[in-house]
Design goal:
By secondary structure, this protein is an all-beta fold. The protein contains one helix and 15 strands, in the order ββββββββαβββββββ. It has three domains: about 60 residues, SH3 type barrels; about 60 residues, Nucleic acid-binding proteins (OB fold (Dihydrolipoamide Acetyltransferase, E2P)), CATH 2.40.50.140; about 55 residues, Nucleic acid-binding proteins (OB fold (Dihydrolipoamide Acetyltransferase, E2P)). β1 and β2 form a beta hairpin.
Length: about 180
């Protein structure tokens, strides 16, 4: 058992007999009362988010976690399939967990997968991914005002605002935090 002050974003704790991933943690104090830690977390079994308060006298139980580099293979009705490049073992993440990451998952790319008790539960995306542009309209001739951009569609279906010089079949770097264009690859 550990103190609530040890809770950090990205850690997994046992809350109400289910593994919960900490999404946000804030330490709060109210006047003369004792401080508490307010935690927003996602249930890794159901995908539901919840908020809880832990007083300094409470104790929390952290689960053993680790990350493993797995290669994204494909999607089917079972979920998102990731393969271990060394053992060729297949791991499946449910669709509800991967839904928020789907625009950044590119086949044959390697991702860090959060494992709880050797079971994949979440994806740690890199800061940026490289994507191929599959649809890019031509820039309008004479439109040279500063920082003019156009929308393009990437191989995952993500729409990104890019400079006018980006053409179809080019590879671009896209930020995974906000989906913005960073550079050519």
């Amino acid at each position: 058992m550990a103190s609530p002050t040890e809770i950090r974003k990205g850690r997994v704790l046992d809350y109400q007999s289910a593994p919960h991933l900490v999404l946000l943690m804030q330490h709060r104090t109210q006047g003369r009362q004792a401080g508490f830690v307010q935690v927003t977390m996602r249930n890794l079994n159901t995908g539901a988010s919840t908020t809880a308060k832990f007083r300094s006298t409470d104790s929390v139980d952290f689960l053993h976690t680790g990350t493993q580099k797995l290669e994204f293979s494909y999607i089917d009705d079972m979920g998102y399939h990731f393969m271990d490049p060394e053992s060729f073992e297949d791991s499946v993440l449910p669709t509800d967990i991967c839904e928020e990451y789907k625009d950044y998952l590119i086949e044959n790319n390697t991702y860090d997968i959060l494992m709880v008790d050797d079971k994949p539960v979440d994806i740690n995306l890199p800061a940026a991914v490289e994507m191929k542009v599959i649809d890019a309209p031509e820039g309008i001739k004479g439109d040279t005002a500063s920082n003019v951009q156009k929308p393009v569609t990437t191989e995952t279906g993500l729409s990104v605002q890019v400079p006018l010089f980006i053409k179809q079949d080019e590879v671009i770097r896209v930020s995974t935090t906000d989906g913005s264009y960073l550079s050519r690859a």
